[in-house]
Each structure stands twice: as C-alpha cells, then as structure tokens.
Amino acid sequence: MTPAPDRYAVIGHPIAHSRSPWIHAQFARQTGQHMSYSALEVAPAELPARLRQFFAEGGRGLNVTVPHKQAVLPLLDEISERASVAGAVNTITAQSHSRLRGDNTDGSGFVRDLTQNLKLDIAGGRVLLLGAGGAARGLIAPLLALGLEQLVIANRSPARAVELAQRFADRGPVRGCGYDRLGTVAFDLIVNATAAGLEQQLPPLPVAVLEAAAACYDLAYAGGETRFVRWAREHEVRCSVDGTGMLVEQAAESFLLWRGVRPDTAAVLAAFPQEAH
Ligand code: NDP
C-alpha cells in the first residue's frame, strides 16, 4: 500500500487567491516528492488552535501569509536568525519531537530573483525601498548584505521608516524618511513594498526620482501588469518587474528547507499561468 503523502499547506486570511498550492505541486512533480500542499483559510482568532491541530494530525510544514506572519512567532519553539531579524515567519517546519521551527524565506527569495533571474547587480549601488511594513522589514538585511552604497526607506508614515532604519543601522548605510524628503537623487533600484496597489493606488513617489531610476521591482503581483509596474514602464524605466519571481523563489527556499532538494524555478516561472496570479 502506498503511504499517505506528507502534508503541507499555506495558512492565511484571505487565502483563496494563493498560487502557492500550484507552485508547490509543480515543485513536487518535478522532484518526485510524495507530498500534498493545500491552502487553509485561518482567521486570526483561530490561529493557535488551527496551528496545533495541523501539526497534531501529522502535518510536516506550513507557509504563513497575511495576516499571520508576526502572530505565529510566540507559537513556535525555535526561530531562525533571519526570521528573528525580519520579525516575521513565512515557513514553519515540524522537527523531531514535534518541535516547530520558524524561518523566513521572503528576503532570500527576493535577492535570488534579483540576482539570479534578473541578473541585476546592485552591489555598490543605491536602492530606494518604498514601505515600512512586514514585507519591507524582511528585505532590509538581505539588501544591505549585498554591499550597497546606500539604502533609503521611504514611507507614507515617515516615523515608521526612520525607526526601521535605526533598527538596521548596524548592518549598513540606511536611512528612513517621508516621500517628500527624497529630493531628486537617482537610484539604481526602486522596490515597491507598499500595499498601495491593493487599493488601486500608487505610492506618492516624486516622478523625478522614478524617471532617474534604473530598475523598478514591485513586490505585488496581479493578473497582468501591476499598477506600479505600468507606471514605471510609462516613465521609461529600463527594467520593471512584478513580484512573481520572488513568490516562486521564496516558495523554492521553503521547499528546500522541507524536502532537502532545490527545485528548478526557471521551469516553474516559464509555466506560470498569467490567469493563475
Ligand atoms: P503591510 O500591511 O505590513 O505594510 C503596508 C505598507 O504599505 C506600509 O508601509 C504602508 O504605509 C504602505 N501603504 C499602504 N497603503 C499605501 C498607500 N496607499 N500609499 C502609500 N503607502 C501605502 O503589508 P506587507 O508589507 O505585508 O505587504 C506589502 C506588499 O508586498 C503587498 O502588496 C504584498 O502582496 C507584497 N508581498 C509580496 C511577496 C511576494 O512573494 N512577491 C511577499 C510578501 C509581500 P504606512 O506605514 O504609512 O501605513
């Protein structure tokens, strides 16, 4: 008799739109792993009980998405250094003796997409990070580790950007400010880590900064072009991409943690159905 597949899932609220089950099904087929991966709708009030239940029933690992990335922290037995620095967990692994370990693959997935897939070399360059929420926070240490000349964090609520910059000041040259303090300096890369696109809005970035940018990266992804990517393209930025590559790369890092094998992300990105965003 064939044993039951090892169980994995993503938890979030809402979760119906998640493409993670599709991505992990491709990875499992490609690498011959006997596993299942589903999307579980988990409301914030249910989080502790549903997490316990999933692992008590033999679940092997979870991905964690909005709004649970911070809330799971106190429910875990161990946290990796990068999850602790990011202050957020997107991957949970059941270890021996049912110990739960939290990790964060968002930052490394982002850097992998940037450097391996897009071949953007920003070492020694200037990067502008828009937003100071959970996603932005997870990118700061991996970006500074690339050896930047400067990282500027701009946020709608400037105090959050300043506070975030202070928190990471020992890791490299980083400062925080409001959008009105950006001046007209040029950036090699602008990363949109705001949730403005979810409200069909654009971050209030001065057009002069956008026009002087070499590349724009939107963490958001949508069926077709995101508003920010279109805006960047209309201002003739050399390269503008959405967050699909990061989504697939962070999933691959989680898969590697769980199964000990790195899937071929290029094949999955090439097959990524536009309507599946
Ligand atoms: P949070 O809610 O934690 O943070 C939202 C941020 O966006 C805050 O800095 C907020 O500013 C800012 N913001 C919200 N609305 C506006 C607006 N209208 N104009 C300007 N700024 C605005 O969200 P997350 O950090 O978790 O997610 C941010 C984005 O990143 C989402 O689109 C998400 O889908 C995407 N993401 C993509 C991933 C991928 O794999 N591709 C992985 C993780 C996230 P303020 O502080 O002033 O409120």
What is the chain-wise order of helices and strands? EHEHEEHEEHEHEHEEHEHEHH
The hetero compounds bound to this protein are:
NADPH dihydro-nicotinamide-adenine-dinucleotide phosphate
Number of helices: 10
Cα end-to-end separation? 37 Å
| Overall pLDDT score | 94
According to DSSP, the number of beta strands is: 12
Cα gyration radius (Å)? 19 Å
- Overall spatial form: globular
Instruction: Tell me the strand order in the biggest sheet.
Output: 2-1-3-5-6-4
Instruction: Give the low-pLDDT segments.
Output: none
Give a description of the structure.
With 277 residues, the chain is of the alpha/beta class. The protein has ten helices and twelve strands. It has helices at 20-31, 47-56, 81-86, 106-117, 134-144, 158-167, 207-211, 227-234, 244-259, 265-271, and strands spanning 6-12, 35-41, 61-64, 78-79, 91-94, 100-103, 126-130, 150-154, 174-177, 189-192, 215-218, 239-241. The strands form two sheets. The protein has a six-stranded mixed β-sheet with strand order 2-1-3-5-6-4. Helix 1 links the parallel strand 1 (6-12) and strand 2. Helix 4 (106-117) crosses helix 5 (134-144). The longest helix has 16 residues, at 244-259. It is globular and about 65 Å long. The structure holds NADPH dihydro-nicotinamide-adenine-dinucleotide phosphate. Residues 66, 106, 131-136, 155-157, 160, 193-199, 201, 203, 219-221, 243, 246-247, 250 line the site of NADPH dihydro-nicotinamide-adenine-dinucleotide phosphate.
